[in-house]
Amino acid sequence: MKKKVKITSIEVANLAGVSQSTVSRAFTTESPVAKKTREKVISIAKRIGYQPNAMARSLITRKSNMVGIVISNVTSNPFYPEVLDLLSRKFQENGQKVMLFVVHRDQSLDDILPQLLEYQVDGILITAVTLSSAMAFECERWGTPVTLFNRYVPGSNASWFCCDNIAGGRTVGQLFIDSELKRPAYIAGSENTSTSIDREKGFMEIMNENGIKTLREVGNYNYNDAYAAAIQLVDRPNPVDSIFCSNDIMAFGALDAIRSGMDLKVPEDVSIIGFDDIPMASWPSFNLTTVRQPVRRMVDASVEDLISRIKTPEKPPNQKVIMGEMIVRGSSRIPSEVSMS
Amino acid sequence: MKKKVKITSIEVANLAGVSQSTVSRAFTTESPVAKKTREKVISIAKRIGYQPNAMARSLITRKSNMVGIVISNVTSNPFYPEVLDLLSRKFQENGQKVMLFVVHRDQSLDDILPQLLEYQVDGILITAVTLSSAMAFECERWGTPVTLFNRYVPGSNASWFCCDNIAGGRTVGQLFIDSELKRPAYIAGSENTSTSIDREKGFMEIMNENGIKTLREVGNYNYNDAYAAAIQLVDRPNPVDSIFCSNDIMAFGALDAIRSGMDLKVPEDVSIIGFDDIPMASWPSFNLTTVRQPVRRMVDASVEDLISRIKTPEKPPNQKVIMGEMIVRGSSRIPSEVSMS
DNA sequence: CTGAAAGCGCTTACAG
DNA sequence: CTGAAAGCGCTTACAG
To answer: Mean of the per-residue pLDDT values for chain A?
Structure first.
């Protein structure tokens, strides 16, 4: 490969017979340059393959036009690739470049955020990862706004946007009750995530209000653990007749466990409801009743919040909960079936 | 949010009673600094929340320690989130930050690569996207190495690493033949992708060698199109008895179409084989026979190639094809069944 | 509208 | 081992 020869604005200036400042202005839309001068500069630049160096520009303007996205579970839950796709598209539309970090179980945000700050990102969007309040403080000290997607940190001044997980859990509980299901269970995601905790909270509230006892297993937001958990719930003296899984992937595991593992029928023997409404939920193999997360609105809200706080740093953070929607498909008994029988 | 007050190395220098150069050296492992001096500087830096500005550093060192990843299909094929996850992890382990671009159908690489170059990325990794030779030239002119993952550009000096798609297609064809299937079909991915073209090529070679006529539909690498395509192939006078789908997601569509749509049996009526071996392929709902792409080896090879060409720009590009592995599950008839019958 | 000059925050020869 | 100084490639007052 050819030796890297950097072309700078000075060379363009020489070729165009103008000063370096003028070349710089030609590349900034708002700067005052004679139309003819700009055209000449641009055409020479194109010819010799010149483009302004974004590092140098960021250094002097003190904005990088980069945001950091921190995400996890890209591989274990198809919901997050979609979130990432929408987020990155929306940032691109707003002229922000994306510096990406995919977090793994063994990694801590404490190692990642400093790298983002070092690169002077204008803002940070965190999804599917919990932010410690120490790190929240660190970002605040740097003056870098942080927005959380589907997580929250009480008492920090990060913005956050969540699906209304408690309300979602309640809706599922109510549907079970309306369908006259008597032995419900909850399969939790990862124990320490607010999403799983809040969905469980809403679900249990309804069950308690109706005096219904509920079983509980942990599925860690993955297919295999949920598969095993579902077997536990059904392969017992007094088996469960309905399972609420904290996400769709686990619901698929439960579904497969009930049908292939236990040779029972869904929804006749067991009703199953998930959470997310990923595209696969509507496939005939699953046909899953689930709570649809309003991804698009959550993404729009998060990105707009972050961008507006980048523009106006004194803006206070936003914290909003957005309603999901129950999507009834074939994996759960429905109230009308009950009344018809 | 508090006003952004930037802390620079000068302030650390003043507090520590050393020069700014010494502060800089304290943050560079190889630089000569007295151990005590370094410790003092680092501790003061930590206290006041100082970290070197990566932009300024990149400007002078002429390396950004950033690579660009360009990807698409993150949402439509679970194979790519996994690729992205592994790629970004591997780059992180090598101290490279990742600037991410998710490409959509309406977008062209021609708009994206200049942004990457503007930000002075040290190298570019492109996956699931085709690189025009004009753009390949543009990167070469900038001296930025490019590595392709599962794509290739003939005649450019980009590196590339592909699964052996032709061999994979041949293996599938051979399995059909060994299983005495007589009416095979191919469901193509997106028409202009080398992956789909090469898998088809290998498959058709075997069929031609054995004088077997083959049907063909297009599934555009997505579930719904493949579902429709499978119906076409089966709901006809002389229906197909085996379908090779160019990826797993399409195989799921075909599977659901055959079972739920047409009420036929897999593999008794129709054998179905996919390509990728995404995690879902082993779920009981699908239990899919498929060709496993050696993702890990492909990722390792790509990242190592790119990093070594960043370090040593005069290195010639590598272009390698890596063997996949046939994973036989329940969605296809197998030769032994035939011989037993 | 345009140019000369200062400065963004670093790294790194050069000299001591 | 340490400091003073040049310079990375830009943007942007300032003056004309």
So the answer is: 93
Q: Are residues B192 and B43 in the same domain?
A: no
The model's pTM is 0.93
Interface test with chain B among A51, A66, A85, by most B beta carbons within 10 Å? A85
Asked whether residue B154 falls in the same domain as residue B199, the answer is: no
The verdict on B157 and B299 lying in the same domain is yes
What's the N-to-C CA distance of chain A in angstroms? 75
**Does residue A130 have a pLDDT over 90?**
no
Query: Are residues A259 and A190 located together in one domain of the fold?
Result: yes
Please state, in angstroms and rounded to a whole number, the distance separating the CA atoms of residues A12 and A38: 12
**A188 and A237 co-located in one domain:** yes
Strands A159-163 and A319-322: parallel
- Is B248:B277 a contact under the CB 8 Å cutoff? yes
CATH of the domain at B23: 1.10.260.40
Residue A127 in domain = yes
Q: Which nucleotide is nearest to A10 (CA to C1')?
A: D9
In angstroms, the CA B88 to CA B96 distance is 9
Domain span at residue B201 reads: 165-293
Q: Distance between CA B58 and CA A66 in Å, rounded?
A: 15
- State whether B85 and A102 contact (CB < 8 Å): yes
Confidence of residue A341 (pLDDT cuts 50, 70, 90): very low
Contacts of A64 in chain B (CB under 8 A): 55
- Whether B3 is covered by a domain: the verdict is no
> Quick check: B285 and A284 CB within 8 A?
no
- What's the confidence (pLDDT) of residue A2? 42
A97 chain-B contacts, CB cut-off 8 A:
99, 115, 119
CB contact under 8 A, A119 and B143: no
Q: Kindly give the parts of chain B with pLDDT less than 50.
A: 1-3, 338-341
Does a structural domain hold residue A211?
Answer: yes
State the DSSP H helix or E strand holding residue A288, giving kind and residue range, or none if neither: none
How far, CA to CA in Å, does B313 sit from each of A318, B143, B146, B310, B317?
47, 8, 11, 6, 10
Measured from Cα to the C1' atom, the residue closest to C7 is: A60
Give the domain-ending residue among A271, A293, A315.
A293
Within 8 A by CB and 6+ apart from A31, the residues are: A24, A25
Contact yes or no for B92 and A101 at CB 8 A: yes
Domain count, chain B: 3
Q: Say if A266 falls within a structural domain.
A: yes
Instruction: Indicate if B52 and B97 belong to the same structural domain.
Output: no
- Are A179 and A280 part of one and the same domain? yes
* Nucleotide D8 C1' to residue A38 CA (A): 25
The C1' atom of C15 and the CA atom of B64 lie apart, in whole Å, by 30
Q: Indicate which CATH number applies to the domain containing B131.
A: 3.40.50.2300
* Per-residue pLDDT tens digits for B16-70: 999 999 999 999 988 888 899 999 999 999 999 899 999 999 999 999 999 999 9
- In what side-by-side order are the strands of the sheet with A289-292? A215-218, A184-188, A242-245, A271-276, A289-292, A325-327
Do A256 and B51 count as a contact with CB atoms less than 8 A apart? no
Q: Minimal Cα–Cα distance from B126 to chain A, Å?
A: 15
Q: Are residues B230 and B276 in the same domain?
A: yes
Of B3, B84, B309, the CB nearest to A143: B3
Taking only the tens place, the pLDDT of each residue in A44-100 is 999 998 999 999 999 999 999 999 999 998 888 999 999 999 999 999 999 999 999
Question: How would residue A340 be classed by pLDDT, with cut points 50, 70 and 90?
Answer: very low
pLDDT in tens, A221-253: 999 999 999 999 999 999 999 999 999 999 999
